[in-house]
Write a structure and sequence with these properties.
Shape: globular
Structural class: alpha/beta
Number of helices: 2
Number of strands: 5
Oligomer: single chain
Strand content: 25-35%
Helix content: 25-40%
Low-confidence stretches: none
Length: about 100
């Protein structure tokens, strides 16, 4: 897993220029973007999706999977994740295959 920390000078993620931090896994040519959090709400789920799209645009690659791992995922965040195609897991041990 690589921790990527890049500067979003266009303000695509947060609405103004700022640092964007992501965890990225590249395995067998697949790009997987992860978010590991102690808890995640609806706004944070949307933020993760914007971070992922920022990374894809900057690097010219589409992620094979978007994954959020958190023991506390708000019910509204779960609905957003389903709508956006983000996989959610309560524990990293629940992610069986990458």
């Amino acid at each position: 897993m690589l921790n990527v920390n890049e500067y979003d000078d266009e303000g695509l993620v947060f609405g103004r220029p700022d640092q964007v931090e992501l965890d990225v896994i590249i395995k067998n040519g697949l790009l997987i973007i992860c978010e590991l959090k102690s808890s995640i709400d609806k706004a944070s789920m949307y933020s993760f999706e914007r971070k992922a799209r920022f990374y894809e645009k900057r690097h010219g690659r589409t992620a094979s999977r978007l994954i959020v791992i958190s023991p506390m995922i708000d019910a509204r965040a779960k609905k957003v994740a389903e709508k956006l195609g983000i996989e959610t897991f309560g524990d990293s041990l629940d992610v069986e295959t990458l």
